[in-house]
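**User:**
Make up any protein.

**Assistant:**
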Amino acid sequence: MPTTTLSALRRAAAAVTFGAWMATVPVLATAQPQATAALPAGVTAGATVEGISEYRLANGLRVLLVPDSSKPSTTVNLTVHVGSRHENYGETGMAHLLEHLIFKGTPTHKNVWSEFTKRGLRANGSTWVDRTNYFASFAANDDNLRWYLGWLADAMVNSFIAKSDLDTEMTVVRNEMEMGENNPGGILFQRLLGSMYDWHAYGRDTIGARADVENVSIERLQAFYRLHYQPDNATLIVAGRFEPAAVLATVQAQFGVIAKPTRVLPPTYTLDPAQDGERSVTVRRVGGVPILYAGYHVPPGSSPDFAASVLLASALADAPGGRLHKRLVEKKLAASSFGAGLSFAEPGLVVVGLQLAPGQDVAKARSEMLAVLDGVAKEPITAEEVDRARVQWLNAWEQGFNDPESVGVQLSEAIALGDWRLFFLKRDHIRKATLADVNRVAVERLRPDNRTVATYLPTPQPQRAPAPAKVDVAALVQDYKGDTQSAQAEDFDATPANIEQRSQRSALASGLKVQLLPKGTRGRVVQAQLQLHFGSVDSLKGQMAVAAITGAVLDFGTGSGKDALSRQQIRDRFDKLRAQVGFRSTGQGVAVSIETVRENLPATIELVGRVLRDPQLPAAGLDEVRRQWLASLEEQRKEPEALVAQAINRHGNPYPVGDLRYAWTFDEQQALVQAVTVEQLKQFHRRFYSAAVGEFTAVGDLDVAAVNKALAAAFGTWRQAAAGATAFVRAPRPLVKAKAERFTIQTPDKQNATLMAALALPLNDSHPDFAAFVVANRAFGSGGNSRLWKRIREGEGLSYDVRAFLEPSRTDLNSRWVSTAIFAPQNQPKVEAAWRSELARALKDGFTAAEIEEAKSGLLNARRLALAQDGFVAGEAQALMHLGRRFDFFQGNNERIAAVTLEQANAAWRKYLDADAVSIAWGGDFKPVP
C-alpha cells in the first residue's frame, strides 16, 4: 500500500512529529469533577469547560487538570508557547534545537533519559510552528508524577544549554534533517510552504536552515531559552489517574518557587499580503513516484471559517467519496488522493494532492486536478459531501475524546492557537458550519491567484482572496461553557489477574472463539479484534499476492441486487455507527480491527460479517489497490531502509518461490501484483474464508448478550463447504542458521543512510532464557539509557535513532535480534566503529547490576502501561487465545523478568549473541564527499 500519504508529508514537515499536525483530528478525554478543597496559597482558579479546569500560579503559569480514572495511567504535558514562528533572522531551527538540549539535563537532573527508562516513562518532546511541548505517559504512580513535574520545573529555568552538548547534538539534528531529506513528498511539501509565504515564518521548515543550525552561537541559544522558557509563557497539563488537590500542591511547590519574569515578550506581527498570482515549485530527486499538491491560503485555525475549510478539504480529497478520488483515482489518472487543513495560530493553509503510480501522466493529472478545484465555483459542494465530512470529523473527535493519555498533547494544539478552549470551539465550529459557509469559503479561497501548485500565469483581472486577519481569541472564548460533562467511567485496575477474572469466554458453532472483557470506559468506547485463520504451506503456495489484495478490497462493496452496498455506502454506514473498522491480510488469515461505542457494536459486527462473508471484490477495487501497491514499490526501490531490509530478509531464506515464507524482491512483487485477476480473488475467498478457525475479542463498555447474539448471527454457521481442503495448519518457521554476510547498498542522492543488523536466535517467548535475554538487550539497545543510545546518539551525536530489539516468536524457537541506526553517509565508519565497539564491550565485560535493574524496571513499567490500552489488551487476548493461553502467561513473563539476575542476563547475552554470526547491511549514498 502507498507510503506517501498526507501523514507521511506531515511527518516530513514537522521537526518532531508527535501531535504536530492535529488539524483534522483533535483528541481529548473528558474528566471527572475537580476537587473542591481549598487551593494552595498562590494558586487561583480559572475557567472550567467540560471537566477541564484551569488554574494559574502567581508567576503566570497556567495549569490544566483533567483527572480520569478510567485507565491506570497518567500523562503530563508542558507546552511552552514558542515555536519556529518566533525565530528571527539567523535563528531558524533554534526552537527545535533547544528542545533537544533540554533533555541534556540540569545540575540536579543530569541524566533524564536514564531516569525515563528506569521509571518506565514513555516520554518525548516536539517542536512545531507555534509551540514546543514535553510530554510523558506512565503507569499511575505518585512518585513518578512528582519526579517528572520536578524535572519539568527544573528544566524550565535551570537547563545546562551547554556548548559541549550543543556540539554533540548538532550532528544528531543534522541527521534528523537528513532523514527528512530522504522523503520526496516531505521535501516537496517544504518547498510548497516556502513558495506560499513571502515573509511569514510559516514558510520556513521547523527544523531550520542547515547553516543556521550549524552556526548558531551558544550565547544566542541561551538568550532564546531565557526569553521564552518562563512560567508566564507556558501551560502545564496533567491528565489521567491522579489526585487533583495533591497535584496542585506539588505544582505550586515545584513551579511556584520560580520568580515571575520582568521581561516583556515581543509580539509577532508579520502577515503576508493576499497572494497575487498562481505559483509553482518543482523538486527533482532520485526515487519515489510523482506527487502533486495544491495549497491555498485560509484563515487561522481559531476562525469559524477554518472549520469550513477543513470540511471543504475532506469533500475534495477524501477516499472514496472525495471529488479528486472519484474523478482521478477511480479513472486511473492517479493512485491516491489526500487533503487537510493546517491549523495555525495565524493564517494557515489547506492542502490537497495526488500520488501517481509509475507511468501515469503527470501533466494530465495536474490538469484534471486543477479542473476539479476550479470547477467548485460552478459545481458547488453538496449537502451530502459536507454532511459526510462533518460526520467523519466529529466521529474522530469523539473517539479521541475518550483517550485520557492524549489529552495533554492534543490540548497543546489548541493552546498554540491562542487558548485551550479553542479545542472545544473548533468542534463547535465544525458542528455549526453550513453548506453556504463551505461554498462561500470555496469561492473565496479556491482561486488560481490564491493557489500554489503549477506554472505562474499572468491575468488581466486578478481576483484576490480576503486579506489575512487575526482572530480576537479572548473575545471568542469569553464566558464559553461547552457541552455538559459526560458521566465518570469505571475505575478499572488493568492487571493480568483483573483482566483474567473479568473476561468471559465462549465459542460459536462455526468454531470461532470469543473472549469479552466488559468494563466501563469514557464515552462508552469499545475496542475489538477479529482474526480468521486459514490455509497451510501447501494450500497457499503461490497465493500470497492474491491473499493480500483480497484482504485489501474486502470493503469495496458487499452483496448483490437490492441487498448490495457500495464501498461508499459501507463507509457511510460505519460512520453513522461511529465505528473505525480496518481490514487487512495477515498471510495465513485476515484481521479486522474495530473501535466503536457500546450501543453500536452489535450493528458493527453485523456489517463486518456481511463484508467478510459476501464481498463484491470488484475489478475497480483490484485496479485501485494494484496501482497503490505499485506506487509503493516504486518508492521503496530507492529507499535505504527498504533496500537493507530486503537484503537482510532474503539472506538465508531457504524457502522456494511461491512459499508463503519466501522473501520476495521488489521485481517479483511487481510481477505478482500485475498478474492478479478478479476471478482469482473470488476463488480465493470462496476457498479459504470462513469462521472455522479464529478469535474475536472485545474490551470496553459491552452489552455481552447483544454482542454474543450479533456474533452468532454473523459468524455462527460460517464454515467452508470443503473445509478439509483448506484447513488451517500453521506454517512452521524453524530456525535457519545463515552464514554472516555484509551488504553495502548504494542509494544515490539519499542524504540519510541506514544500518540493519540481524541474527536468528533459538528462542521463543516461553523459553527459560527469554526473559534474561530481553532484559540484557534492553540494557544494550532499548531505551534512553542503553549502551547504544548513550554512545552513538548522546556521546558522539552520530544518529538520531539507534536501537536493538528482539522480534520474538510465540511458537517456534526462532526469534530474530535486530539492530538499526540512521546516520549521515559520511559518518558510516564512525557509526560502525562505535556499534561494533559497544557490542564487543557488552560481550566481554557484560552489564552492571544497575543497568540490569533499570532495564527490568523499564520493561515492567512499559508492560504495565500497555495493559492500560484497551486496544492492546484486545490484541493480546486474541493472540493468547489463539495459542491456548491466558493472561496468567503474560503475568508469568512479568514475574520472570522481575526475577532475572545480573548473572542470568549476562549469561543469556553471551550464550545467544554471537558477534561473528551477525549479518549486517548498510544502505546509503556512500560516495566520497568532495
Q: What stands out?
A: The domain at 28-255 is CATH 3.30.830.10 (Cytochrome Bc1 Complex; Chain A, domain 1). The chain is about 40% helix and 15% strand. The radius of gyration is 27 Å. The longest strand covers residues 525-533.
